[in-house]
Design a protein that fits this description.
The chain is mainly alpha-helical. The protein contains eight helices and two strands; from the N terminus they run ββαααααααα.
Length: 154
C-alpha cells in the first residue's frame, strides 16, 4: 500500500534557532501527517486508535478514509480484541470469508454486551425495566449458556 498523491511533495527547511519545520517558499504546508508520511506509517499511527476513534478518523477527510478503509491490518487488530470475547462468532465469520471490517461491524456490539453479562454487570437486575436505555443485541444459545454458567459460578 503506497501513498500516491497527484501533487509534488512539500519541501521543508529547518529554520536556524527554531526547532519547527517550515514549508519552503511557494509550497503549501501539508494539512495533515497522512499527506507527508508513507501510508505504512499512517497505518501504524491509526493502529493506536480504538474502534470508535478509528471510525471517527475515517470520517475526518478523504485521505484518512481511504487509508483506513483499505487497511485490513487496522480492522484485524480491532477484531482480535473482539475475538477475545466472541471467538466462536469471529472464527465463523472468517471461515465464511468476510473481511475484518465486516466482522468487526457484525460483532462489536455483541462483544460489548456479552462482556457486560460475563463480568456480572446485569447479575443483580430485578426486572427487564432496569435494562432500558442499554444497547442489547440478540445472542445465540451457546452464548447464553456461557453467561448462565458464569452466573452459576459467581
Amino acid at each position: 500500500m503506497q501513498h500516491v498523491c497527484g501533487r509534488t511533495p512539500p519541501v521543508f527547511f529547518l529554520c536556524e534557532g527554531s526547532p519547527a519545520l517550515t514549508a519552503a517558499e511557494g509550497t503549501a504546508p501539508p494539512r495533515n501527517f497522512a499527506e507527508t508520511l508513507p501510508t505504512e506509517m499512517s497505518v501504524r499511527i491509526f493502529g493506536e486508535l480504538d474502534a470508535a476513534s478509528l471510525c471517527s478518523a475515517a470520517r475526518t477527510c478523504r485521505l484518512w478514509h481511504q487509508i483506513i478503509e483499505q487497511s485490513e491490518q487496522l480492522w484485524r487488530k480491532q477484531c482480535l480484541m473482539v475475538r477475545a470475547i466472541c471467538q466462536r462468532e469471529v472464527d465463523s465469520d472468517r471461515r465464511h470469508g468476510l473481511s475484518w471490517k465486516v466482522i468487526l461491524v457484525r460483532n462489536y456490539i455483541r462483544s460489548r454486551v456479552k462482556k457486560d453479562w460475563l463480568i456480572g454487570l446485569f447479575s443483580h437486575m430485578r426486572s427487564a425495566d432496569e435494562l432500558s436505555g442499554r444497547k442489547l443485541t440478540p445472542l445465540d444459545a451457546e452464548t447464553w449458556g456461557e453467561i448462565l454458567q458464569a452466573e452459576l459460578d459467581r
